[in-house]
Amino acid sequence: MVNYRRIGLDTNVLIYYIEEHPVFLKKIEPLIDKIVEGKATGITSYVTLLELLVKPIREERFDLVEQYRTILMTQLEMVPLDESVSLKAAQLRAEYGLKTPDAIQLASVIHKNGEVFITNDRRMENVKEIKVLALTDMPG
Q1: How far apart are CA 124 and CA 98, in angstroms?
Q2: DSSP 59-118
Q3: Is 39 left (phi over 0), alpha (psi -120 to 50) or beta?
Q4: Average model confidence (pLDDT) for the chain?
Q5: Cα separation of 83 and 47, whole Å?
Q6: What pLDDT digit, counting tens, does each position of 81-95 carry?
Q7: Cα gap 78→47, rounded to integer Å
Q8: Over 90: is that where the pLDDT of 139 sits?
Q9: pLDDT-based confidence at 103, cuts 50/70/90?
Q10: pTM summary value
Q11: What domains sit in the chain, N to C, each tagged with a CATH number?
């Protein structure tokens, strides 16, 4: 993990970090620290913002909505869904049978020259356009 400078983050990685997951936090924390310290760039799509805000909105925790929004917008490179990302996502869906949100996430990171995509979803591991690492395979 140390060698990567442009790191794609799936929503589940950020949820585990925010919720201090008892198993995954120790794997994620060094990665997030590296991004916060400016030693790497974290990349994600606006799908992450959408997915991350559902629970706080449902619970009417608008303080958390604003906190999560601020963290994402200031600490990560957020990728909008534009034509080129959409085309790449369609190609990934067609080739690998990915769900639309997963295809958008991967296409966004690929579009921004990400070197690796961190997730806990093994269904993305067969994608050849970018290295996909599952949290379960990471040290920590």
Answers
A1: 7
A2: TT-HHHHHHHHHHHHHHEEEE---HHHHHHHHHHHHHH---HHHHHHHHHHHHTT-SEEE
A3: alpha
A4: 93
A5: 15
A6: 999 999 999 999 999
A7: 9
A8: no
A9: very high
A10: 0.93
A11: 6-137 (3.40.50.1010)
